[in-house]
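Good morning N.,

You mentioned wanting to compare the apo and holo forms, so I went ahead and generated the holo version with magnesium ion. This is what I fed in:
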Amino acid sequence: MITPKIWKVCVIGDKSVGKTSLIRRFVYDTFEDDPEETIESRAFRKKCGSTTLIIWDVSVYEENIRSILAGAKGIIVMGDLTRRSTYDTMDKIAEFLNGHKGKMIFVANKSDLKYKAEFWKDEMRSLANKFGAPYFLTSAKTGENVTEVFRAFLEM
Ligand SMILES: Nc1nc2c(ncn2[C@@H]2O[C@H](COP(=O)(O)OP(=O)(O)O)[C@@H](O)[C@H]2O)c(=O)[nH]1
Ligand SMILES: [Mg+2]
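and this is what came out, ligand included:
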């Protein structure tokens, strides 16, 4: 018998990197150019085979990050390829998460804006190597690599 599992995944990163967009693309297969800002953290649910993912869209205004990350099986640490500062934030978040039991995956979003990119695969590879975690370049807009992120997590 297959036992149904419920896994918590948290998505964190700087404002406007595309956290909500990535989750919406994965859960509903939609994209908005001008979405509402995420003021309060909220959870989305998606069934993947026998596993149900509870995906937390963590607000940048979250006061108690540690409590919201508690019990997470996975943490998606996101940056925006068009803003170098969001790369530095991913590094800081990963340092902060050191010791968390959940699996970490780095995601650099907005790969459809390659002509505007301020970092790319080489930088992501070195970040991923530093923390021993996988990385993906995604586009919530085109859907590129979005399911792959969550699939990699389910297979970890
Ligand atoms: N071109 C492009 N824009 C994106 C992508 N993902 C998100 N955006 C845009 O970036 C802005 C911020 O997205 P949002 O999901 O609200 O970011 P959040 O603050 O991290 O939740 C919005 O205008 C989105 O339409 C992407 O993959 N490509
Ligand atoms: Mg948001």
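The chain has one domain: 5-155.

Happy to go through it together on a call whenever suits you.

Best,
F.
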